[in-house]
Write a structure and sequence with these properties.
six-stranded mixed beta sheet; Immunoglobulin-like; alpha+beta; 38% strand; 175 residues
Protein backbone atom coordinates (compact mmCIF):
# COMPACT_ATOMS: atom_id res chain seq x y z
CA UNK A 1 0.00 0.00 0.00
CA UNK A 2 2.27 2.71 -1.27
CA UNK A 3 0.39 5.98 -1.24
CA UNK A 4 2.49 8.51 -3.24
CA UNK A 5 0.78 11.49 -1.56
CA UNK A 6 1.49 10.12 1.94
CA UNK A 7 5.10 9.30 1.07
CA UNK A 8 5.62 12.80 -0.36
CA UNK A 9 4.02 14.35 2.75
CA UNK A 10 6.29 12.33 5.09
CA UNK A 11 9.37 13.23 3.00
CA UNK A 12 8.51 16.95 3.24
CA UNK A 13 8.10 16.76 7.02
CA UNK A 14 11.36 14.84 7.38
CA UNK A 15 13.20 17.43 5.26
CA UNK A 16 11.68 20.24 7.34
CA UNK A 17 12.69 18.53 10.61
CA UNK A 18 16.27 18.07 9.39
CA UNK A 19 16.46 21.70 8.21
CA UNK A 20 15.18 23.05 11.52
CA UNK A 21 17.59 20.84 13.48
CA UNK A 22 20.64 21.89 11.42
CA UNK A 23 19.66 25.59 11.43
CA UNK A 24 19.13 25.50 15.18
CA UNK A 25 22.58 24.04 15.71
CA UNK A 26 24.18 27.04 14.00
CA UNK A 27 21.88 29.67 15.50
CA UNK A 28 23.12 29.30 19.08
CA UNK A 29 26.33 31.37 19.38
CA UNK A 30 26.61 30.84 23.13
CA UNK A 31 25.68 32.95 26.13
CA UNK A 32 24.46 36.51 25.60
CA UNK A 33 26.07 39.31 27.61
CA UNK A 34 24.72 42.83 27.92
CA UNK A 35 26.82 45.50 26.21
CA UNK A 36 25.86 48.38 28.47
CA UNK A 37 26.46 52.10 28.44
CA UNK A 38 29.78 51.88 30.30
CA UNK A 39 32.85 49.68 30.58
CA UNK A 40 32.35 46.83 33.04
CA UNK A 41 35.74 45.10 32.83
CA UNK A 42 34.00 41.74 32.23
CA UNK A 43 35.98 40.14 29.40
CA UNK A 44 34.44 37.03 27.83
CA UNK A 45 35.86 34.36 25.53
CA UNK A 46 32.58 32.68 24.61
CA UNK A 47 29.15 33.92 23.65
CA UNK A 48 28.42 37.40 22.38
CA UNK A 49 27.78 40.93 23.60
CA UNK A 50 24.57 42.68 22.52
CA UNK A 51 23.45 46.23 23.15
CA UNK A 52 21.90 49.33 21.71
CA UNK A 53 18.38 50.10 20.54
CA UNK A 54 16.38 48.46 17.77
CA UNK A 55 14.54 51.77 17.39
CA UNK A 56 17.61 53.30 15.70
CA UNK A 57 17.17 52.04 12.13
CA UNK A 58 19.73 54.13 10.25
CA UNK A 59 23.14 55.45 11.20
CA UNK A 60 26.22 57.04 9.72
CA UNK A 61 29.54 55.36 10.58
CA UNK A 62 31.91 58.35 10.75
CA UNK A 63 35.16 56.56 11.63
CA UNK A 64 36.71 53.34 12.89
CA UNK A 65 39.80 53.78 15.04
CA UNK A 66 42.04 51.76 17.30
CA UNK A 67 44.48 52.31 20.12
CA UNK A 68 46.60 50.27 22.51
CA UNK A 69 45.77 50.68 26.18
CA UNK A 70 48.22 50.88 29.05
CA UNK A 71 46.07 48.22 30.77
CA UNK A 72 47.06 45.67 28.10
CA UNK A 73 44.04 45.63 25.81
CA UNK A 74 43.46 47.03 22.34
CA UNK A 75 40.46 49.28 21.86
CA UNK A 76 38.50 49.47 18.60
CA UNK A 77 36.00 52.33 18.35
CA UNK A 78 33.15 52.68 15.85
CA UNK A 79 32.29 56.41 15.79
CA UNK A 80 28.63 56.97 14.90
CA UNK A 81 26.44 59.97 14.25
CA UNK A 82 24.53 60.98 17.35
CA UNK A 83 21.03 59.67 18.06
CA UNK A 84 20.58 61.24 21.46
CA UNK A 85 21.18 58.68 24.19
CA UNK A 86 20.95 55.68 21.84
CA UNK A 87 23.08 53.69 19.43
CA UNK A 88 21.73 51.10 16.98
CA UNK A 89 21.35 47.50 18.13
CA UNK A 90 24.66 45.66 17.75
CA UNK A 91 26.35 42.36 18.54
CA UNK A 92 30.04 41.55 19.00
CA UNK A 93 31.39 38.01 19.02
CA UNK A 94 34.85 36.47 19.03
CA UNK A 95 34.88 33.64 16.51
CA UNK A 96 37.49 31.64 18.38
CA UNK A 97 39.12 29.07 16.17
CA UNK A 98 38.49 31.26 13.11
CA UNK A 99 40.86 34.03 14.11
CA UNK A 100 38.39 36.87 13.92
CA UNK A 101 35.99 39.10 15.82
CA UNK A 102 32.66 39.94 14.18
CA UNK A 103 30.76 43.18 14.82
CA UNK A 104 27.18 43.35 13.50
CA UNK A 105 25.14 46.57 13.45
CA UNK A 106 21.39 46.27 12.82
CA UNK A 107 20.73 49.54 10.97
CA UNK A 108 20.97 50.90 7.47
CA UNK A 109 24.55 52.09 7.78
CA UNK A 110 26.06 54.82 5.66
CA UNK A 111 29.85 54.48 5.53
CA UNK A 112 31.44 57.89 5.89
CA UNK A 113 35.00 57.03 6.90
CA UNK A 114 38.33 57.10 5.10
CA UNK A 115 39.09 53.44 4.34
CA UNK A 116 42.79 54.15 3.69
CA UNK A 117 43.12 55.91 7.06
CA UNK A 118 41.41 53.00 8.84
CA UNK A 119 43.66 50.45 7.07
CA UNK A 120 46.75 52.46 8.07
CA UNK A 121 45.62 52.59 11.71
CA UNK A 122 45.13 48.81 11.82
CA UNK A 123 48.53 48.21 10.19
CA UNK A 124 50.02 49.36 13.53
CA UNK A 125 48.00 46.83 15.54
CA UNK A 126 49.61 43.85 17.28
CA UNK A 127 46.27 42.04 17.60
CA UNK A 128 44.25 42.91 14.50
CA UNK A 129 45.73 42.15 11.09
CA UNK A 130 42.91 43.61 9.02
CA UNK A 131 39.59 45.45 9.31
CA UNK A 132 36.92 44.63 6.71
CA UNK A 133 33.39 45.80 6.05
CA UNK A 134 31.76 42.65 4.69
CA UNK A 135 29.41 42.85 1.69
CA UNK A 136 25.83 43.62 2.68
CA UNK A 137 23.59 40.60 2.28
CA UNK A 138 20.42 42.26 3.52
CA UNK A 139 19.13 45.75 4.19
CA UNK A 140 19.43 46.90 7.76
CA UNK A 141 22.49 44.78 8.67
CA UNK A 142 26.15 45.76 8.43
CA UNK A 143 28.87 43.30 9.40
CA UNK A 144 32.48 44.14 10.14
CA UNK A 145 35.32 41.69 10.63
CA UNK A 146 38.48 42.16 12.66
CA UNK A 147 40.90 39.51 11.36
CA UNK A 148 43.36 38.64 14.09
CA UNK A 149 47.06 38.53 13.43
CA UNK A 150 49.63 35.73 13.82
CA UNK A 151 49.68 34.28 17.31
CA UNK A 152 46.49 36.14 18.25
CA UNK A 153 44.67 34.07 15.65
CA UNK A 154 45.41 30.78 17.41
CA UNK A 155 44.60 31.89 20.94
CA UNK A 156 41.23 32.18 22.61
CA UNK A 157 40.18 35.81 22.39
CA UNK A 158 38.69 37.62 25.35
CA UNK A 159 36.73 40.75 24.66
CA UNK A 160 34.34 43.25 26.09
CA UNK A 161 31.89 45.44 24.19
CA UNK A 162 29.95 48.47 25.33
CA UNK A 163 28.68 51.76 23.96
CA UNK A 164 28.93 55.41 24.89
CA UNK A 165 26.83 58.40 23.89
CA UNK A 166 27.65 62.09 23.46
CA UNK A 167 29.28 61.36 21.05
CA UNK A 168 27.81 58.00 20.02
CA UNK A 169 30.19 55.08 19.64
CA UNK A 170 30.43 51.31 19.93
CA UNK A 171 33.59 50.11 21.66
CA UNK A 172 35.29 46.72 21.54
CA UNK A 173 38.19 45.99 23.90
CA UNK A 174 40.37 42.99 22.95
CA UNK A 175 42.52 41.29 25.56
Amino acid sequence: MNNPGLIRWKACWLALAITVTVAGAHAAPGPRYEAGAKKSGAYRSEGFFAGGSKEVTSVRLKDVRRADSQEGFERVVFDLEDHGERVPYFQVQAANGEGRVVVSIWADTQYDFDAAKVAKAFSKSRRVRKFRALPRLEDGLSIFELSLSGTEKNTEKKLEAFYLTDPSRIIVDLQ
